[in-house]
Amino acid sequence: MNITSFDELGIPIEMINKLAEFEIKVPSPVQAEVIPAVLQRKDVLAHSQTGTGKTLAYLLPMLMGIDPEMKSIQKLIIAPTQELAMQIVRESERYGEQSGVRVLALIGGASTKRQLEKLRLHPQLIVGTPGRIRELVETRKVKMHNVNSIVVDEVDQVFQLGAAGDVSKIIRSAMRDRQLVFLSATISKESADLVSREMKEPVLIGIAPEQMTASGLEHYYFITEERDKPDVLRRLIRHYNPEKALVFVNATDDIAVVEAKMNHLGISTQALYGDANKLARSGVLDRFRKGKFKLLVASDLAARGLDIEGLTLVVNYDPPVDSEHYVHRAGRTGRMGRSGIVLSIVTDRQTFIIKKFTKELHTPIGLRIMSSGKVIKPGEEIPRNTTYTKPAKMESTEPKQSSKNTVLSVASVPVLPTPSAEVSRKSNRAATGASKSERERVRKNKGAPKWLKNKPPRS
């Protein structure tokens, strides 16, 4: 059945109206599949790229399943990074406000004392990072006996960050008949192993390979020398002129280099580091969201879980190491069906990586070049005249008409006779002799008394 409205999915009118405020009127494919399964309290493993609406796919039914009168934790959402966790918190507060659901963020890097104080307000939904939640579960500060649903968002990233053990401990501390919902852009072996251990007859929701990246994205790549990458990036930013753009580099040491070069080239740029403290990271992201600068340079680790509203351009200054990382980078733009552009700057030796991504992701990544400040397809270069040949002068066969304001024709001007060659040679010799005589007189007069200088030559 083709579901075309949230009403068909059983979403209450209050939530539908709130969705409409943010121009979300039709459920995305992943929402149409995940929402019914979660409402039926089935375990779910959803294979979905970021930017396809997967957060609301699990969040809306989770909020619907919370009893606001019950003063205990009922739902738990685990995210790999602080930024993604806080994004989920904002969405939860937005759509759970009318029903009176209380939400609490438990993330690493924040004050534990303040989090414990907020736990006394009896939140029904906890959103946080694996390490901090496990810590508070083990110290019995977070009571898990009424938690009936656990969501792990971006489960593959959670495992890549080494938090698989934390997730397993959190799951085992909950009710035996708890519901598990895992979502990820890619499904690794570790994810599959955890599913087989912890889930009971899970509903497997997969997205076709051609939908691995958001459908509203355009993918292009540019070939250049490594030393020319800063200038290519500058020209691309000038051409596309995005309000905000995210630039990915592979090595942490290169982040500051790219940041400095782009600022030197006149494009406002700041950097985001994976090892920065919470205050520094939040400060950079807040300025970026407010449009205080145009380019944010980051590594894959630093940009995990980022959701920047209005981000229309992602640039791979360095090509990602594999198609999984390409999917995650591309997922920072073109979210929820919106348009976006993903550009990759590669050297000639790196073009095989782009071809590999095209094949594995079933996503066309087109080659483009810069010509006269514009991005065009190869072969569409603006023609230029390399040499200029002056056209031959045409002789008129008809006599020119004279008028009052026109210059006399050549035929009406008297032609003076040309002197003969002999006369010309004699004149030249005379001139040469006169000049030699004058030079001799000047030479002899040097140093002579004034009365002698003016003495006329002998006749």
From TrEMBL:
Residues 399-409 have a biased composition (Polar residues). It comes from the Bacteria. It holds the Pfam family DEAD. Keywords: ATP-binding, Helicase, Hydrolase, Nucleotide-binding. One of its GO terms (cellular component) is ribosome. InterPro entries: DEAD/DEAH_box_helicase_dom, DEAD/DEAH_RhlB, DEAD_box_RNA_helicases, Helicase_ATP-bd, Helicase_C-like, P-loop_NTPase, RNA_helicase_DEAD_Q_motif. Residues 378-459 are annotated as: Disordered. Residues 4-32 form the DEAD-box RNA helicase Q domain. One of its GO terms (biological process) is response to cold. One of its GO terms (molecular function) is RNA strand annealing activity. Residues 216-376 form the Helicase C-terminal domain. Residues 35-205 form the Helicase ATP-binding domain. A motif (Q motif) lies at residues 4-32. The keyword Amino-acid biosynthesis does not apply. Residues 442-459 have a biased composition (Basic residues). This is DEAD/DEAH box helicase. It comes from Paenibacillus crassostreae.
